[in-house]
């Protein structure tokens, strides 16, 4: 199991040797025999309490005949405990009605245990009013089992207030199932978004902890979940381990994930295997994913099928993913469909993508819609793309907005761009900020351009005046540039050049140019030429001109003309005329004509 004991501090406990156990059992047997002898001597002397105690001892041992003789004698002498135990004996022998008669006698005499037993008897027969009466008698006398049984009855009848009161009473008296059920009720009432540190959360944890400490395996599981969410992983692992050892498959699965996250994959696999063999589909999927990562696709497929057999639809979805990765499109579609028909939203989205790639746009749209309606953010975004491709911009925008509201970065970018086109700059800024904050380089660049357009012209910079701090738009340009956005890199270079930081400007221009930006290559050429590195500038202008940059072509024509390379200069001037823009074309045409005249002279 790797270093699990060290990770969770479980430690080891020394187990008594077989010889010590045998000695203890022999001593207990000797003590019980001695006690029986003492009780029989007292019974021979007419001691009613001894008769009752001896009958109870024989009942526990399974000597029903001997127990019945002693219990009837004690009951005839008015011992209410004996009457209760006689009822238990008769009930075990199948004489339920006669047992109820003796329980009634004991209950009337004040036996809380007998009142509890009588209440259970009436509930089994469907007489709930009588059951409630006797269970209430038992609970009000402080009988913990009576309180729990009464709470269960009231909960069944829909009396939540009464059930809660008696469930709490039973829990406070140490009933572990009552503590667990009380915690579950409080947990559900607190809702999924509650803060684990508030008063309600503390009480939920308290009751889970009480039940778990008394050996309740599901309480230990829930306690582990609370602790894991809070980041207390070592203690969470200990409770998962406790629950898993008691046979709780979900705890074994959760323990496996905790171990995996701690880097102990081998131990995680052991617990997932244990959970999967007990029918936990999530663990079977985890095992499938583990083997898939190792390239053991056949074993992975076997575990995904086991997950399906356990009723986990993720198994079919994962099988679809596995087949898609292997290029088995038909099988992938089959498994995606199976999961999608079962309501698996991600499988519905994956199926739609598969159909769309195959050219079946009509078949894809309903699956995108089904996934989106089920809450798939990716499917909502994909529907936006689908409708945008058809020219249905308003419908596309509606789906983009839905995905953006759920935090989809690219959808927020699309909504921001649509708002910009519509002239709603404030709303555009809001969506672009969301997308940029989510990591979209294009959104960061677009946001920077919006903010840049609002900036007032910078004041004249006087000698000795400190450099101004970077504006927000520059920060967004830099964020986009650092993510590889070429236009942002060029813009950051231009801003750096305007500040006189030639080294920084050259760095950004070069980065953009090397990524394929023709503006970056042109600007880098300008910077190098100003710094006296014209041969290197020509290299970058040539790259920009070859990519269709008219000004770069004009610069090359001028360089060639200055060097006397008239034919080459004329060729680049022709190129600049064809590339434009208009003012560049006009200048290039004049230069071309001059070079032509020079060549023909």
Broad structural category: mainly alpha
Helix content: over 70%
Strand content: under 5%
Rg is 41 Å
Q: Profile the largest sheet.
A: none
The gross shape turns out to be elongated
As residue ranges, the low-confidence spans are: 1-17, 192-197, 461-466
Q: How many H/I helices?
A: 35
Q: How many E strands?
A: 0
Distance between the termini: 92 Å
- Roughly what is the average pLDDT, rounded to an integer? 89
Strand and helix layout:
Blueprint: H1 4-8, H2 18-44, H3 48-61, H4 64-76, H5 80-92, H6 96-108, H7 112-124, H8 128-140, H9 144-157, H10 160-172, H11 176-190, H12 199-213, H13 217-229, H14 233-245, H15 249-261, H16 265-277, H17 281-293, H18 297-309, H19 314-325, H20 329-341, H21 345-357, H22 361-373, H23 377-389, H24 393-405, H25 409-421, H26 425-437, H27 441-454, H28 472-482, H29 486-498, H30 502-514, H31 518-530, H32 534-546, H33 550-563, H34 566-579, H35 582-600
Helix pairs in contact: 2-3, 3-4, 3-5, 4-5, 5-6, 6-7, 7-8, 7-9, 8-9, 9-10, 10-11, 11-12, 12-13, 13-14, 14-15, 15-16, 16-17, 17-18, 17-19, 18-19, 19-20, 20-21, 21-22, 22-23, 23-24, 24-25, 25-26, 26-27, 27-28, 28-29, 29-30, 30-31, 31-32, 32-33, 33-34, 33-35, 34-35
Summary, kept brief:
With 601 residues, the chain is mostly helical. The protein contains 35 helices and no strands.
Tell me what the structure shows:
The protein is mainly alpha-helical. Helix content is 79%, strand content 0%. Helix 23 runs antiparallel to helix 24. The N and C termini lie far apart (92 Å). The model is unreliable at 1-17, 192-197 and 461-466 (pLDDT under 50).
């Amino acid at each position: 199991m790797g270093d699990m004991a060290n990770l969770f501090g479980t430690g080891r406990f020394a187990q008594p040797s077989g010889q010590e156990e045998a000695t203890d059992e022999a001593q207990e047997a000797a003590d019980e025999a001695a006690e029986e002898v003492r009780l029989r001597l007292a019974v021979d002397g007419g001691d009613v309490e001894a008769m009752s105690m001896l009958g109870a001892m024989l009942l526990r041992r399974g000597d029903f005949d001997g127990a019945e003789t002693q219990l009837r004698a004690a009951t005839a002498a008015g011992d209410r405990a004996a009457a209760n135990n006689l009822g238990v004996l008769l009930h075990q022998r199948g004489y339920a009605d006669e047992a109820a008669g003796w329980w009634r006698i004991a209950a009337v005499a004040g036996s809380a245990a007998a009142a509890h037993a009588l209440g259970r008897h009436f509930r089994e027969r469907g007489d709930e009013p009588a059951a409630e009466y006797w269970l209430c008698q038992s609970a009000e006398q402080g009988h913990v089992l009576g309180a729990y049984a009464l709470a269960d009855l009231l909960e069944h009848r829909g009396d939540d207030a009464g059930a809660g009161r008696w469930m709490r009473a039973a829990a406070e008296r140490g009933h572990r199932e009552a503590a667990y059920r009380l915690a579950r009720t409080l947990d559900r009432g607190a809702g999924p978004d509650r803060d684990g540190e508030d008063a309600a959360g503390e009480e939920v944890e308290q009751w889970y902890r009480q039940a778990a400490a008394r050996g309740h395996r599901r309480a230990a599981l829930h306690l582990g979940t609370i602790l894991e969410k809070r980041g207390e992983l070592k203690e969470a692992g200990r409770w998962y381990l406790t629950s898993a050892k008691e046979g709780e498959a979900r705890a074994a699965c959760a323990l496996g994930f905790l171990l995996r996250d701690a880097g102990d994959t081998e131990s995680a696999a052991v617990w997932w295997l244990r959970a999967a063999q007990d029918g936990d589909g999530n663990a079977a999927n985890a095992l499938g994913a583990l083997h898939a990562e190792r390239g053991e696709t056949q074993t992975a497929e076997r575990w995904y099928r086991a997950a399906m057999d356990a009723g986990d639809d993720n198994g079919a979805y994962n099988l679809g993913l596995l087949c898609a990765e292997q290029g088995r499109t038909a099988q992938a579609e089959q498994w995606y469909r199976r999961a999608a028909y079962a309501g698996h939203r991600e499988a519905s989205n994956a199926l739609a993508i598969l159909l769309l790639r195959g050219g079946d746009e009509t078949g894809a749209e309903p699956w995108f819609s089904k996934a989106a309606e089920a809450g798939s953010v990716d499917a909502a975004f994909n529907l936006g793309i689908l409708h945008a491709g058809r020219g249905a911009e308003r419908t596309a925008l509606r789906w983009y907005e839905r995905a953006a509201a759920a935090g989809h970065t690219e959808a927020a970018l699309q909504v921001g761009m649509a708002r910009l086109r519509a002239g709603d700059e404030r709303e555009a800024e809001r969506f672009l900020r969301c997308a940029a904050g989510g990591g979209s380089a294009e959104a960061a660049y677009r946001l920077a351009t919006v903010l840049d357009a609002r900036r007032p012209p910078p004041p004249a910079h006087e000698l000795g005046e400190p450099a101004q701090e970077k504006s927000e738009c520059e920060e967004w340009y830099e964020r986009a540039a650092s993510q590889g956005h070429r236009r942002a890199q060029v813009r950051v270079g231009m801003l750096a050049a305007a500040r006189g930081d030639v080294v920084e400007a050259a760095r950004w221009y070069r980065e953009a140019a090397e990524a394929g930006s023709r503006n970056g290559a042109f600007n880098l050429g300008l910077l190098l030429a100003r710094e006296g590195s014209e041969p290197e500038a020509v290299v970058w202008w040539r790259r920009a001109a070859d990519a269709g940059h008219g000004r770069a072509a004009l610069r090359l024509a001028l360089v060639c003309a200055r060097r006397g390379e008239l034919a080459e200069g004329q060729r680049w001037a022709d190129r600049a005329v064809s590339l434009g823009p208009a003012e560049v074309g006009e200048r290039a045409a004049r230069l071309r004509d001059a070079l032509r005249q020079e060549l023909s002279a």
